[in-house]
């Protein structure tokens, strides 16, 4: 039990509530999209599957295939070459160089992006241009990318989005810590959920219980999320400003390992053998591969690996490209192993939950769902306590709008994707328009409904209805594989995701909010049942 | 079977202990006005709480930190589900 004075509790309650009122809806958006993004790759495969699943993220034979592709692109683009799986399981090979930018502007990556089938390594399409243009050219990842953009940047341009989500990460930290301190009987109350009590008390219990059980992870997710947002928006530019005169590119280059400049031509070693060696050396699985200075004596091959079984930290190993000789193990940060580097390396697995494949993703999805539930029930609780006050009805409806309208709008984006996608061609801003249209429609429903409660029910059913349509749209409108074909092609996630959407839709359509009887509403808690925070709230 | 799947399986005995702890929790029984079963004593609760964490010990001892995190997260989520389930059962 944490002993804090009544005055302190009152202040913390105000901080906790204010952080929720002003940032709660945006925070809920970031948490909900982050929860869905845990299964980003699986959603990508479900939305636009390849014809056959690949045997591994980098299948055998990819090294030889890269050599034939390298012979077909502009030699200037052999400066930096990367091959990596895209969200939908297909492979992307990006041959590119850095084009010097005008004074005061960042250097631009320009090159050829080639899309490959993961099993046959057959070329599907290629496009040449700046990095922005070529990645926008393909629509196969559009659904996952939209979700990630909403989670990472709230669809805001440039660094603004990172600033916004970084601040939201700090708001979540503040809410977690203040909520922990306010709720003095955390352990004592951890099994107590009063559903038979009046609505407000039941809502309060639902919020506190979900918050208590997800507290350590809410703290971890908030901290790592803020780290990622501010690391890119502030950390790197600050480092560059202090040590490199503001030149981010040079700062990044200095952090890269050096093998000594030698531009004389030299054939590249067998990349497939390098991948086998990297797997044997680290005990992990190659996830992606980058080659600097392809075809030169100073070529350097970087293979990024998954963590070894039971481990958390992903690794990277470097090979000399000309000889295929092992060069060094790349630390998570900088060129020498360090505690700080390991800590920085932990941020990614702890935030994304992808350190052990499906088991860790299931757990992280559940933890994210609990955090989203805490954010939403916190808003609902705050507004319900003040629903008799005129101004708060609008916030209650706004909570209903985003709380239940956001899932409906995201489901509408997926439906829009299936109706608009044509093979792997790009979709431009179409999904953004569908999303904004969904938000507008759900806003009209929320603010036009009889009450916030009626809006909740309506939007939940709308979400369920759209989710129920998704497997049909995937199959009929987007001409995706049926369940039999998907399972026989090793694309089991297509079946699993369809099933999840059907079950989720049925849950939304069948959901009934438990109602308290008039007698139960009149039940008051004994003084012993109340926490100091409640007594303060009652007094207020 | 991978160690990460083993971690999920190890969450099952912990979940059973959590269920027992929640089912016989004195405050829950009092607040939900359940009188057909007795609450666990403080010593019993302490013993069960220690037992709750026992499945995680081999994972930590062998350095399977990813498996430990999976177990840890799974136990917390199961705990939430147990509380929701018991509350629903009690309200019927």
UniProtKB/TrEMBL annotation, chain A:
Keywords: Membrane, Transmembrane, Transmembrane helix. It comes from the Bacteria. The chain crosses the membrane at residues 12-39, 160-187, 208-230, 362-382, 402-421, 427-447, 459-478, 490-509. This is Putative iron-regulated membrane protein. It comes from Litorivivens lipolytica.
Automatic annotation (TrEMBL), chain B:
The keyword Transmembrane applies. This is DUF3325 domain-containing protein. The chain crosses the membrane at residues 6-22, 43-62, 68-90. Keywords: Membrane, Transmembrane, Transmembrane helix.
